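Work Package 4 report. The design task specified in the project plan requires that, given a folded chain encoded as structure tokens, an amino acid be chosen for each position. We show below one input record used in the internal validation round.
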């Protein structure tokens, strides 16, 4: 632990985290009055870019509010969770017990989230989920101190089936990584597609974060479905898009997905991504003053284009700032803090959204198509969509 680490500037912290998987341990406790904010995100592996975009978004939202929470300065703590579920509990415990964070922001991967969820429920620490969509977090294992600012895994794909049928694609193959996020995205796809009259001819999968797609693409070619639908994200999504085109499937069998497929990967995927249609709670091209202002500010600050992960991070920062302001920085006033966060209206670049009773966004889902390295909005595929929140009992 060096002093230099204590005074990292924002940009140095971000660059450092991205390149080294930086951990910021054991910062002197004697600073009493600062709000201790823990970031538990992937800074290495296939979701590394997602973690960086989320952190950028969180910091940008708080900086825009003066860089404080409820009038208090902030002390940041970071853990690279590596998208490794087996270390989820251990990593969350580091932030809660060792670093004594007041709020834990994390994470991206649904399996890792289950570890955070356990620690949050056992310790009562405030947890804001800036991505991971695992259903249990806002269904059977929901908790008063856990708030999600992103989506449930089946939310985007619940809007996908109807859009594919509207294009005349009646027989589809589904392909994904076999873990909670892929399996639950499939639930949304299956429900919406079969309800709209579609038939799923085959479900294909490979373990996370495997990217050996070749055998599965050969199988898709021989199955000859009308379309393919999928869940992939991050570095693996860019490779899937390129491999799909290289296998000769692009232009023959239309590719659909939950919109993570085309988030943050359009430079890496190149022209292979053109024409992919997805459903998602955000789109680069949303033509609103709020989105334009956000995109310009983000690009100016970070010298890269924001994506849905940056937006989710930003909204996490907004929610935290709104909650902290309502209790004038007294995050121990939990009843009032949770009430303020439950009733918050988040003025997001994605459009205004509210919290459901189970603490998950009620939000519009857009239909988008990739054109020239941009996710272009085609329309609203589902208006004010709430997750079922099935089985959620707070308290
Ligand atoms: C998840 O594991 O919940 C997950 C990861 C990446 C995404 C979406 C969901 O883009």
């Amino acid at each position: 632990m060096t002093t230099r680490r204590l005074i990292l500037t924002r940009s140095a912290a971000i660059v450092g985290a991205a390149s080294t998987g930086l951990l910021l341990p054991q910062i002197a406790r004697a600073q009493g009055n600062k709000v201790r904010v823990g970031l538990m995100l992937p800074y290495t592996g296939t979701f590394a870019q997602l973690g960086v975009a989320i952190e950028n978004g969180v910091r940008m939202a708080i900086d825009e509010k003066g860089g404080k929470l409820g009038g208090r300065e902030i002390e940041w703590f970071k853990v690279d969770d590596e998208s490794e579920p087996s270390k989820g509990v251990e990593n969350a415990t580091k932030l809660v017990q060792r670093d004594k964070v007041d709020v834990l922001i994390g994470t991206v991967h649904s399996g890792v989230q289950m570890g955070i969820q356990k620690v949050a429920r056992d310790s009562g620490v405030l947890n804001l989920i800036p991505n991971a969509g695992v259903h249990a977090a806002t269904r059977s294992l929901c908790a008063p101190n856990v708030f999600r600012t992103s989506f449930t895994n089946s939310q985007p794909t619940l809007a996908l089936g109807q859009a594919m049928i509207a294009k005349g694609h009646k027989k589809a193959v589904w392909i994904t990584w076999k873990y909670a996020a892929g399996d639950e995205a499939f639930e949304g796809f299956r429900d919406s597609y079969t309800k709209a009259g579609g038939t799923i001819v085959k479900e294909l999968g490979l373990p996370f974060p495997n990217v050996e797609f070749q055998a599965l693409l050969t199988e898709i070619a021989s199955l000859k479905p009308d379309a393919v639908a999928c869940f992939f994200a991050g570095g693996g999504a860019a490779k899937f898009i390129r491999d799909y085109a290289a296998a000769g499937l692009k232009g023959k069998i239309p590719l659909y997905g939950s919109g993570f497929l085309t988030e943050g990967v359009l430079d890496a995927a190149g022209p292979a991504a053109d024409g992919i249609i997805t459903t998602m709670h955000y789109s680069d091209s949303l033509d609103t003053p709020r989105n334009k202002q956000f995109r310009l500010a983000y690009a100016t600050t970070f010298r890269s284009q924001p994506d849905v992960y940056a937006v989710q991070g930003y909204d996490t920062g907004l929610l935290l700032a709104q909650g902290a302001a309502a209790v004038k920085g007294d995050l121990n006033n939990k009843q009032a803090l949770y009430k303020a966060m439950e009733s918050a209206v988040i003025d997001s670049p994605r459009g205004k959204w509210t919290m459901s009773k189970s603490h998950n966004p009620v939000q519009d889902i857009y239909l988008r198509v990739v054109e020239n390295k941009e996710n272009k909005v085609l329309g609203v595929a589902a208006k004010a969509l709430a997750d079922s929140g099935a089985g959620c009992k707070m308290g």
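The pocket of P-hydroxybenzoic acid is lined by residues 108-110, 131-134, 153, 181, 233, 260 (CB under 6 Å). Validation will be extended to a larger panel in the next phase.
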